[in-house]
Structure formats: C-alpha cells, structure tokens
Amino acid sequence: MNRSFLEISRLSVRFGPTAPLVLNSIDLKVEQGQYVAVIGHSGCGKSTLLNVVAGLLPATLGGVLLEGSEVTEPGPDRAVVFQNHSLLPWLTVYENVKLAVDRTVGRSMSRAQRHDWTMENLALVRMEAHAAKRPAEISGGMKQRVGIARALAMKPKVLLLDEPFGALDALTRAHLQDQVMAIHARLGTTIMMITHDVDEAVLLSDRIVMMTNGPNATIGEVLDVDLPRPRDRLALASEPRFLAAREAVLRFLHERHALPAAA
Amino acid sequence: MNAITPPAVTATAPLATPAAAPAPKASALMRRVSETLGVVIPPLLVVAGLFLLWEWLCSGPGATLPPPSRVWNDARELILNPFYDRGGLDKGLGLHLAASLQRVALGFALAVVVGVGLGMLVGSSKLAMRGLDPIFQVLRTVPPLAWLPLSLAAFREAQPSAIFVIFITAVWPIIINTAVGVRNVPADYRNVARVIRLRPHEWFLRIVVPAAAPYIFTGLRIGVGLSWLAIIAAEMLIGGVGIGFFIWDAWNSSNLSDIIVALIYVGLVGFVLDRIMAFAGRAVTRGTTEQ
User: Fold this and answer.
1) What is the pLDDT of residues A80-134, one digit of tens each?
2) Out of B207, B213, B291, whose CB is closest to A136?
C-alpha cells in the first residue's frame, strides 16, 4: 500500500472515558513538502488535532503515522510553534534557540557547529541582530519569529504551527506570513498550520482542511489551492482563483457550518 | 501572611529607570535630584510631625511614657555609641542586634535549604503534596513561640532553641511559595520541554527552578520578616545577648527610653532585611518574568 508522508487515520479524541468525542474519525494524508492549513470555528478541536500530531495529547482511537511510524510521544521531528510563542523568558533569544539545538540535532555536532546552526536559524527569521535580547525586550512579532527559528532549528520532518500569527496585528501578521512562505519555499518543510483566518489559509497553503463544529468535529471538506508559487499577496488580491478559493472557505464556515447565533 | 508586602516596594521603582528622553546632562541630573527629593521629603516631614505630636502628648504632668527629648537625654549613649562593650550584658545595641541577626541568619539559612527542598518536592509530586500539605497547613498556624518550650526541652540550650524557632517560623512560607511556584510552571514550558525531549534533571534545572524563582523569593521575603518578628519574642524568653532580651531587661529595670530606642533599631533592621531580600529577588529574577 502506498503510504503518505504524514497520515492521520480514523483519529478520534475524547478527554475522559465518559466525555463526548472532541474529534470524530479524522482522516487526512499529507505529502512531503505540502503546506496544509486546518481551519474551523473556535472550539472545533483544531488545536487538539495539532496536539495529537505533535504527540502532546494521546489519540483515543486511530492514530497518526509519520513516515510509517506511529506517533506516541512529542519529539523534535514534529516541532511546534505555539500560539503564544512560549519562549523561556529567563533565556535570551539566542539561548532559547540554542537550548533546542543542544537537546536535539546538536547532540551530534561540535560546539562551534551548534553555535553556527543556532545563528543560521536566527538569520533565517532575521533575528540575528537581536540574539542577545530577552523575550521581554522584543515585540510580539519578533517573539513569534524566534519561536519559528527554534522549531526550524530542530530540523523537523513536519513543522506544526498553532495559530502562529493569531495574537499579532494585521501588518505584522502579513510580514510574518511572507517570511514563512519564503522559508517554506527555501527549505521545503512539510507544514501543518492551524488558523481561523481565511485569507491566511488561502494565501499560504496548498490544501485547506475545513473542520465542522465541535464537539464531535470532523473534516467537512478539503480544498486544494492550486495557485502558483511564489505567491504575492498584492497580485492575488484580484486573482479569480484566489477569490474563488476564499469564497469556498467562507461559504463553508459561514453558510453550511455557521456557529449557532447563541454562541 | 501574604499581606507582608508593603506597597513602598513599587514607590521607589521609577527611580531605577531614569527618564528615557535624551535630555542634556545637567537637566537630567536636575530631574533626578528633584525626583529623589520628592521621594525623601514627604516621609521626613511625617516623621518630624510625629515626633512633635509625641513630644506634645508626653510632656504633660500625667504622661506615662517619656517624650523624645527625655529619650534623647536618657539614652544618648545608646543612640550614639551602638558598639560599646562593658562585658556581660552591658553592650551597645549594635552588638545585641548582631547577636540576634546571627541567630536569624542561621535559622533562616536552614529554613531556606529545607523549605526550598520540600517546596520543590511538594510542588512536583502529587503524592508528596497529598501526604504533606495537610500537615504543613496545620503546623504553619502554630505561633512561633509555642515551639519554644518544646525546643528548649529537646535541645536543652538557649542558642539552638532560638535558632530552631526561627527555622520553624520561616520554613512554612518558603515551602508554600516554592510549591506554588513549581506547580504554576506554565503548561507551555512543559510542552516545549517535551518537544525538545529535556531529560528530568534538565527540565528541573533549566525550566522549573528559573520559572519558580520569583515565587521562591516571595517566600524568602515573607520568611525573613517573620523570622525577625519571632527572634525578638524568643529572645525575651531565653535571655542572653540579643535585642529581644535587651528590651525585656530594660523593661525590668524600667528604662522606657532604652526600650523606645531599641524599638526604632529593631524596626530599621527589619526594614533593611526586607529590602535586602527584595533586592536579591529582583537581581536574581531580572528579566525572567514577562513584563
């Protein structure tokens, strides 16, 4: 049988034996190098899905296969960029990335190589000039960039982004989206991103996975976004295929699976 | 217990960050000076006012307490020469305070080691918490002096008994705050550690200890304040050299002026101890918390 790079098969999750299912029978295949966005209303369990792929939460039924082996625990091959950056505030920007390097890929490197690799990843997100600062001294967008650098420094097979730009203002978000697109183009990393932003999903991803409302959420539709890369947000603003994809996602979220008014 | 965090701590904080505007040096200095004066002058005025009020209240014919002018006349040597030593218990206040501080230092050091250790254990293990926390919650309400007879019986000597009372007074807030700090390590840091697969000892040293540090220092600060409260009372009972016994001795020989001077010294030392802990806490946890 032909295995995909990342396979989620018949995955169901519940928190506690009598609790209702949060996720119900999720099936998803992701090929190497693909950028997949998972979109849905708040509370639909999309973060739960990402946490199961990361290994931070256990699957109740079904499971996740990465390159044919089952995900049972967290690990650097599925690096996560957390929604609220999760940098350690007592470490500098450099030390935050270095800690991840030292404990993962750096175990087989020399001291100089670990330093170089740390700086290379900071340079990738253009943070090398701020390496000596602490998280409290840099902006929210910068923190998120360091979070991305920390995740990339682990040389992950899959990069998991949990609403990475949700807490940022629109201009900073656009800037970071462009950086992530550039990094994806350059490294070819497989990326799975949780988002609730329709434009972001269409602009960044090759496929958009639309989730129905929870509890008992499952995949409602999967949309292929066949826009050529590199993508330019200005050129796409009036591009019919972009607008069509955007409309399709909007219709799914606000017509067929709108939240009840009471929510 | 948590009430022992005077708002004065924040009152001086703006001084630490000089005005950011790139003003000429002279005017920046002027602003510094005027800011400092603004902080220093009001309490001085209040103190002067209190002294005047005190003088007025205690100068009447039926006054039971001496006014400041008589305190000055009676206890001038005590105020001006804190380090005289005429042998026995006839020593300057500085020497009495040094003896008390030494006891506090020993007892508090023990409390830090044991308190942080136990707090880490209780904070990181559910089982340890279930077993130990109820006991801590009961024991911590026992007033410090209630331990003194037992510890005198156990140690049969004044010095170790006093040190034990300090230890048992200071250890509870340290345990409890440390445990809270360890339990409150954000889940995000835990997730980061799991993704990069930190080993247990690395998780402990690189994440738990720094994340709990601000809580630990809060506990240390409360603990040192309570120690200072307890040592005075304990020394009144055990005797020997020490500021507590000095006060009791002065009361027995009706030297009210000496008592008043000693109280002022006790207050000042307590204030300095609190400030030292606050400063140490700020220095160690600098930049380790968001905002």
Assistant:
1) 999 888 999 999 999 999 999 999 999 899 999 999 999 999 999 999 999 999 9
2) B291
Q: How many Cβ atoms from other residues are within 10 Å of residue B63's Cβ?
A: 11
What is d(CA B279, CA B89) in angstroms, rounded to the nearest whole number? 34
Q: Tell me how far apart the alpha carbons of residues A117 and A123 are, in angstroms, rounded to a whole number.
A: 10
Give the pLDDT score at B24.
58
- In angstroms, the CA A151 to CA A149 distance is 5
Angle at the Cα of A195 from the Cα atoms of A191 and A196, rounded to 5 degrees: 160
DSSP B208: I
Contact A93, A122 (CB under 8 A): yes
Minimal Cα–Cα distance from A28 to chain B, Å? Answer: 22
Q: CA nearest A140 in B: which residue?
A: B290
Handedness of CA B59, B65, B71, B73 (dihedral sign): positive
Between positions 3 and 62 of A, the ones with CB within 8 A of B are: 54-56
User: Which parts of chain B register pLDDT below 50?
Assistant: 1-21, 291
d(CA A126, CA A137): 16
Q: Which are the contacts of B98, defined by CB distance < 8 A and separation ≥ 6?
A: none
- Domain coordinates in residue numbering, chain B: 76-285
Distance from CA of A86 to the nearest CA of B (A): 6
Helical pair B256-284 and B209-238, crossing angle rounded to 10 deg: 170
B76-285 CATH, one of 1.10.3720.10, 3.50.50.60, 3.30.70.120, 3.40.50.300: 1.10.3720.10
Average pLDDT, chain A: 92
B123 close to B178: Cβ distance less than 8 angstroms: yes
| Average of per-residue pLDDT across A152-168 | 92
Contacts of B161 (CB under 8 A, 6+ apart): B148, B151, B152, B154, B155, B234, B238
Structure tokens that stand for A107 in this block = 């175990």
∠ CA B56-B57-B61, nearest 5°, is 95
Q: What is the pLDDT of residue A1?
A: 55
pTM of the model: 0.79
ipTM given for this complex: 0.89
8 Å CB contact between B180 and B217:
no
A103 has a chain B CB within 8 A of its CB: yes
Instruction: Give CA–CA dist A122/A129, Å, rounded.
Output: 9
Q: Using alpha carbons only, what angle is made at residue A134 by residues A131 and A136, rounded to the nearest 5 degrees?
A: 135
A159 and chain B in contact, CB less than 8 A:
no
The three-class DSSP label of residue B2 is coil
By DSSP bridging, strand A6-14 and strand A61-66 are antiparallel
Residue A133 touches partner B, C-beta closer than 8 Å: no
Q: What is the pLDDT of residues A37-89, one digit of tens each?
A: 999 998 888 999 999 999 999 999 999 999 999 999 999 999 999 988 899 99
CA-CA distance, B263 to B251, in Å (whole number)? 12
